[in-house]
Input
Amino acid sequence: MDLYSSIFELIDMRSFSNLWFWIALAVLWSTASHWVLGVPYDMVLRAGRHGGQAEQDLEDLVRINTNRLLFISTVSGLWMLGLGCFILTALLLSGFLYGLEIAQALFLLGFPLSIVGLLSLSTARLIHDEEASGALLRKRLSRHRLYVQMIGVVSIFVTALWGMYQNLSIGALGG
Output
C-alpha cells in the first residue's frame, strides 16, 4: 500500500464527511453575519454606544458600500443574475439528479448565499431610498444581520441533515 492510498483512506475526500467542509461552512456563515453590507458589525455597535465620530464613520462606510452595490446592480445586475442562476442550476442538476456530492455541497453553500446577496441588495436600496442615518441606519443593519443569521441557521440545519443522510447511506452501503 503506497503513501497516497494511506492518506486518502485516512482522510475521506467526500464533501460531507470531510472536516474541512464543515469548517468552511462555519466560517462562511460566521463571516456573512459579521460583515453587514460590507461593514463589520462591531462598528454598528460602537456607533450606537458612542455616537459622534463612530456614527459618522459608520454612515460614511455604509454610504460607500450601498452606492457601490447599487451601481454594480445597475450596470451588470441582469448578467450577474443570469450567471448565478446558471451556476446554481448546474450545481443543482449535477448534484441531486446525477449524484455528484461536491456539486451538492457547493449548491448547499451557494444557494443560501445567493439569497443573502439579494437581501443585501434590497437592504442597500432601502437604506439609499430612505437616506437612513443614525438610529434608523443601525436598525436596518441590525435587522439585515438578524435575517442573515436566520438564513444561516436554516442553511446549516439543512446541510447537516443532508450531510448526515449522505454519510449514513454511503456508509451503510460500504462505499
About this structure: The longest strand covers residues 35-36.
